Amino acid sequence: MSQEPGRNDFVFRRTARFRKSFLKLPRKQRESCFEKFRTFKSNPWHPSLGTHPIRVLSEKAGEPVYSVVIENDLRVLFVRRGNVITSLDVGNHSVYR
Question: The pTM is what?
Answer without folding.
Answer: 0.87
